[in-house]
Amino acid sequence: MSRIERDSLGERELPDDAYYGVQTLRGWENFHITGLPVSREPALVKAFGYVKMAAALANMECGILDPVIGRAIVAACDRIIDGEFIDQFIVDCIQGGAGTSVNMNANEVIANIALESLGRPKGDYATINPNDHVNCSQSTNDTYPSAFRLALVMRLRHYAYTLELLRDAFRAKSREFDRVLKMGRTHLQDAVPMSLGMEFGGFATNIDEEIGKACESMNLLSEINLGATAIGTKVNAPPDYPERAVGHLARLTGVDFTLACDLIEATSDTGAYIQLSGVIKRTAVKLTKICNDLRLLASGPRCGLHEITLPRLQPGSSIMPGKVNPVIPEVVNQAAFLVIGLDTTVTLAASAGQLQLNVMEPVISHALFTSINTMQNAVKALAEKCVGGITANAAHTEAMVMHSIGIVTQLSPILGYKKCSEVAKKAYEEDKSLHEVVVVEEKLLSQEKWDELFCFENLINPHFVKP
Question: Choosing from 317, 351, 421, 446, which is the catalytic residue?
């Protein structure tokens, strides 16, 4: 069974069970780029449902959309929002036309759902038309970015929640490792002592900062151009339509959307996407550093730092029996590298817009959705499969601290920098502990004074010692 649909380029045959129409079919035929249809990003499909519903409600209030048709469109949008017909959104994520294909995909699916609800056959566009009714008072120039921003807000909420899980996992380990003494390092060389809890607390604070940045980015996305229509002139939109449409969208979604004050600027501007991409990249860079630290701290186990032990998840070699690799930090690193590269994609696409429209918005959306999805999965894996199962090798880390030359810094106020340098050199060259040199051999300090200076509390929170 099939039906014939017509557009300005001619006739095309469509399967009768297809809710999309001729313009969607042309988009599907033209754009085989990523192999990923828009349906792979359900948040964007759902967001289009909200945008089209808000538009229909505003058009009915303005008296330019028949209430029977308008209510049928609203009901169809409700079904899209509920996740029905997701398989009907078939156009590729990356497409020419600044998103026209995905906008028409939504218009045609909604029109045909609405037609069926009125007992009319699919394709009866004389009754409900994808352009004249579903797309009434709209252009791809305002519906696509408005839906895109809504979808980003929905995705960012889940992303921020996942970051909270990782932050909380690090905080829990910070408390667990509060009394684990270890050596801090700068330049990969021994510096001064700290607790392992301090180190993991630093990781938690790092992630907490990223949660704040993600939330700030959501605020940037709340200014939209819905109602701007083509290039921001509001052509073909009745008076008060933009304010009404944005108001309905805010009420329907619970997102505090506001209408941009300059619709010409807002229609071509991609600044919010650049900033959001930078925020996600920033988190990726920080996670790369954290995962590199975890790999270093867990290196060995016999011939590395071996300060912590990561969960043993799978055999690590096809040739070396018993080897286990830090696979979760490794995969998070790789995810971060992908996100860093995608930020470059967003930057180039944002800079490639000309005059009153940035036609590269589809690749920006694909890059941002991919970045958020990749980071969310990576962060979840790090929290659940790695951080929660980390154990500390406390005896080993304490032994390394007490054998380190770095703790000589504690003696500098008492013995002076020059003498401490001599003591450190002797301990290093003769492979002796500082205790052996300072207390046992040269008797520069009493055992009591040594114990006072090198107790756990003073090592991690040193008090100033007068000469």
Answer: 317
Dihedral sign (CA 279, 281, 282, 288) = positive
Cis peptide before 301 (omega within 30 of 0): yes
Task: Centre a 10 Å sphere on the Cβ of residue 3 and count the other Cβ atoms it contains.
Answer: 17
> Residue 307 to residues 97, 165, 185, 399: CA-CA distances in angstroms?
55, 24, 13, 11
CB 439 within 8 A of CB 450: yes
Match 């502990």 to its residue by tokens. 433
Reported as a single tens digit per residue, the pLDDT across 289-318 is: 999 999 999 999 999 999 999 999 889 888
Vertex 311: Cα angle to 307 and 316 (nearest 5): 100
Across 420-437, b (16+ Cβ under 10 Å) vs e yields beebbebbeeeebebbeb
Q: What is the DSSP string of 3-49?
A: EEEEETTEEEEEETT--S-HHHHHHHHH--SSS-BGGG-HHHHHHHH
- Write the burial class of residue 390 (CB in 10 Å: 0-12 exposed, 13-18 middle, 19+ buried): buried
Amino acid at 131: N
The DSSP line for 135-202 is: TTT--HHHHHHHHHHHHHHHHHHHHHHHHHHHHHHHHHHHHHTTT-EEEEEETTEEEEEEEHHHHHHH
Closest among 233, 220, 221, 227 to 264, alpha carbons compared: 233
The Cα diameter of the chain in Å comes to: 101
What are the pLDDT digits (tens) for 34-67?
999 999 999 999 999 999 999 999 999 999 999 9
Left, alpha or beta for 315 (phi > 0: left; psi -120 to 50: alpha)?
A: beta
How is residue 134 written in tokens?
């579903």
Identify the CA nearest to 142 among candidates 231, 60, 61: 231
Look up 146 and say whether it is catalytic: no
Task: Report the distance separating Cα 128 and Cα 111, nearest Å.
Answer: 6
Q: In sequence order, which residues have a C-beta less than 8 Å from that of residue 152 and are 6 or more positions away? A: 218, 221, 276, 368, 369, 372
β-pair partners for 259:
224
CB 357 within 8 A of CB 399: no
Task: Count CB-CB contacts under 10 A for residue 347.
Answer: 18
Q: Write the CB contacts of 143 (distance below 8 Å, at least 6 apart in sequence).
A: 48, 51, 52, 55, 103, 106, 135, 226
For residue 137, the tally of other CB atoms under 10 A from its CB is 24
CA distances from 454 to 144, 192, 259, 449 (A): 63, 12, 62, 9
* Exposed/middle/buried for residue 309 (C-beta within 10 Å: 0-12, 13-18, 19+): middle
Residue 15's Cα: distance from chain center in Å? 38
Residue 466: which pLDDT band, with cuts at 50, 70 and 90?
low
